[in-house]
Amino acid sequence: MTLRHMNIFVVVAELGSMSAAAKQLFISQPAVSQAVSELETHYQTLLFDRLGHKLYITQNGEKLLILAKQLLHQHNSMEEAMLTKENQIHLRLGSSMTVGTCLMPDVISEMEQSQPLLNVYSMVNNTAEIEQCLLNSSLDAAVVEGDIQSSHLVSIPVISDQLVLLCSKAHPFYSKQMICSSDLNNMKFAMRENGSGTRKLFESYLSQHSLTIQVAWEANCPRSITNALLTQNLLTVMSYRLVQPELKEGRLKAFSNDSHAWDRTFKLVYHKDKLLTPEIHKLKEILERYESVTLANPYPCRLTD
């Protein structure tokens, strides 16, 4: 099967229509239909269910779509690398919100300084969205704090992290050195959005301890949540890496979880069929150095079960 077959198939799958694909590709509809039919004959499987005038991709079609996108991206990367006069190297990196805020700007800067021809595209979103981008091959690799669900992705722990409970000076908890998990019941919280690895870990903790909280503020930006804490009488759970200045200055107070239920790792993630380039190996090497960075521990306060 040729790259032409794969390109036609990807466009049909994305648009869900033979006629729309033909229009976008500037070819006839019979040519599109023939290319899809030849793929189905070659692989001896149905790639689309035809119901009425609509196409619905099958499970095998979804599998081919992932592989076809990877193949086309690798081909385009090869063409760019060989035809671009400067031989510039492109790397598409994703990161979840916490990682993208406290870690990836420094990591990307270090990568680009060590490789002057490297051009990095960076996307920051929650873990669930980054996972989808890796699956559809719109990203080469990612670093996330949440758990990866798909068996098609490889997830390698690279950096230790820990969530802490945070409050401002206005909150009653600020004067305490120790609180119990039951003290959190019915408290008002600022929370990350659904799909966030941080939120998923904290909600699991709440469920295990039969706790209910009031979500008074919800945002997909850690800085927005920090600002909400500083101006409102709220609590939140967040990586201690994100609030080092506020903790050192005493504007926020942190409580470390005694049970280590909020310990986690940042993970390097890529598709299991991904060709690991020298740039991805370099990314892993840099990330592993950040594991040895010791952050200040300005929170002797404890949250017990």
Cα-based radius of gyration, to the nearest Å: 24 Å
Largest sheet: 9 strands, mixed
Question: Which structural class matches the secondary elements?
Answer: alpha/beta
Dominant shape: elongated
Poorly predicted runs: none
Order of helices and strands: HHHEEHEHHEHEEEEHEHEHEEHE
Number of strands: 13
The percent range for helix content is 40-55%
Could you report the average pLDDT, rounded to the nearest whole number? 88
Distance between the termini: 59 Å
**Beta-strand level of the residues, as a percent range?**
25-35%
Count of alpha/pi helices: 11
Notes on the structure:
There is one protein chain. 42% of the residues lie in helices and 26% in strands. Strands 3, 4, 5, 6, 7, 10, 11, 12 and 13 form a nine-stranded mixed sheet that branches. Strands 1-2 form a two-stranded antiparallel sheet. It has helices spanning 3-15, 18-25, 29-43, 59-83, 97-102, 104-114, 127-135, 197-208, 222-231, 244-248, 278-290, and strands at residues 48-51, 54-57, 89-95, 118-124, 141-144, 153-168, 178-180, 188-192, 214-219, 235-239, 252-257, 263-271, 301-304. The longest helix has 25 residues, at 59-83. The chain starts with a helix and ends with a strand. It is built from eleven helices and 13 strands. By secondary structure, it is α/β, with parallel strands linked by helices.
In short:
This protein has 305 residues and is of the alpha/beta class. It has helices at 3-15, 18-25, 29-43, 59-83, 97-102, 104-114, 127-135, 197-208, 222-231, 244-248, 278-290, and strands at 48-51, 54-57, 89-95, 118-124, 141-144, 153-168, 178-180, 188-192, 214-219, 235-239, 252-257, 263-271, 301-304. It has eleven helices and 13 strands.
